[in-house]
Amino acid sequence: MKHKNIKSNGKCSVVDLDKLCFVRKGMSVTKDKIKSGRIPVIAGGKAPAYYHSESNRDGNVITVSASGANAGFVNFFTQPIFASDCSTVEVIDPKKTDISYVYLNLQNQQNILYSYQQGGAQPHVYPADIVKLKIPIPSIEEQKEIVKTISTWDTAIDNIKKQITAHNKQRSGILQKLLEDNLKKYPMITLEQIFNIEVVPSKKDVLVEQGKYFVIDMGGVSSSGELIKKKMTDTTEHMLEVNDLIMPKDDIGHGNILGKVAIIDTANKYVLGDHVFRLCNKSQNNIQFLRILINSPKINRSIKRLGNGTSQIGLRKSDILKHLLPIPDIKEQNKISTEVLTWERKIYLLETILSKYELQRKGLIQKLLGNITKNAKH
């Protein structure tokens, strides 16, 4: 995608956010006070916490999450919202300041907002810090031109997201039709009959900044069953092999990753960490089918129910070994895995394009705002 150069009239200054916008705290509301409706309640997360029947902010408002792991996260809503555990940003004079332009600036300073987090167990970001953000302000015409340029990228990104959503629905439909509707007719087999299960100690003492291998531990598997590559090491102890399944055995909070499995797809790249089970297939069953089966909603819920604990939920190896799985014949396994993998590959391709577009959009915002800031009066 191409964009045209935006010419500046040279009249630009950099000001604190509170010179352009009202920054206000939201109003606390508990779940029992919520009356079901269509108004999103914006709290400390990245998505609406609930949906309410009333609003306390009009549309075209920026939100900054106030507390929790996502404190400082910036979002924008064109519709009315109920601002709860967040701060809101609204322009003082819409004739001089475009709210979407301000939002692009706050997005561009997302990492700065995250750096404002205060507190340990429950980080907070306060309005007093948000108002310190510096915003370059050109003419309203230039602001709108920048917003228009970025909106073409937003449209393309939204279209990709819609395609991903549609493909995920297709995948879910196939999974329901081919697998979940037929679970009761398949023979039940314990995980112990299918897998060898291994648990190892922590790799925290051998972690390095830039290593040869990724450590897959509790934080190494996503709630959608994907590998998360963050921690690194140079040790080759407990090297994982292609087609190993990794299942988080411990989780905090709601246990969203508990019992999910990710598949090792590359040799000599991953090392086993703690808080996870390594499942090595010792049977003749299709490993991709086993991954799909364990991650399917019904089976994953049954595994999660084995969890014990409050602040940290854990699975016992003995319980997992005894857990039963419905296993069809190999012909049916191959059919199911082929159908589901077809849609997963389509989704992966779209997600790759989406990541590329989002990165290019971010770079363009930095370039456009950087040019304005460079020519501005401070």
Q: Could you walk me through the main structural features you see in this protein, from its secondary elements to its overall organization?
A:
The structure is a single chain. This protein has helices at residues 99-108, 110-115, 127-130, 140-178, 191-194, 287-295, 297-304, 317-322, 330-374; strands spanning 13-16, 21-25, 36-42, 50-52, 61-65, 74-77, 82-83, 86-91, 134-137, 188-190, 195-198, 207-208, 213-216, 232-233, 245-248, 250-252, 262-263, 270-272, 276-281, 312-314, 324-326. The protein has 378 residues and is α+β, with helices and mostly antiparallel strands. The protein has two domains: 13-137, DNA methylase specificity domains (Adenine-n6-DNA-methyltransferase TaqI, Chain A, domain 2); 187-327, Adenine-n6-DNA-methyltransferase TaqI, Chain A, domain 2 (Alpha-Beta Complex), CATH 3.90.220.20. Strands 2-8-5-6 form a four-stranded antiparallel sheet, with helices on one face. It has a four-stranded antiparallel sheet with strand order 11-19-15-17. The radius of gyration is 25 Å and the shape is elongated. The chain starts with 12 loop residues before the first strand and ends with a helix.
